[in-house]
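Q: How would the structure tokens look for this protein?
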Amino acid sequence: MILGIGTDIVDPARFIHWQHYSLPRLQRVFSDGELAAAMVNGLLVPEKLAVRFAAKEAFYKALAAMLVRLGQTHKPASLLAVCKAVEVVNTTWQVPTLVVDWDYLQELFACTLPSVTVDCSLAHEKEMVVAFVIVSGVYGS
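A: Here is the predicted structure in token form.
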């Protein structure tokens, strides 16, 4: 059963100035692995930052939809707080997947979350990136 769906579209131009942010500031949103994957020749590539950010925001939206469905709306959290719990990693086929720290999220939302699967699809071009996330699992049987 689908418990939540999220999508996000981002203009990579928004991330050009992020190339000049300090490492601690970038680490508020991205993991070290994500920052390394967004580097080409020692420079952060805006499209690569943007698509990772879009994935995190799409996940946030899907997670929020799931929490509403589960009736767990008593303790909201910011996008920035949720960014710390999700990391975009590439599989051996260079297909992106999301690795989620569910323990952190359960503590953040002060509830027990069901066992779920997170699927994502990411795409980027010079002028647009898109992320789509589905959270699915068994609920209410």
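The mean pLDDT is 93.

The first strand starts at residue 2 and ends at 10.

Upvote if useful.
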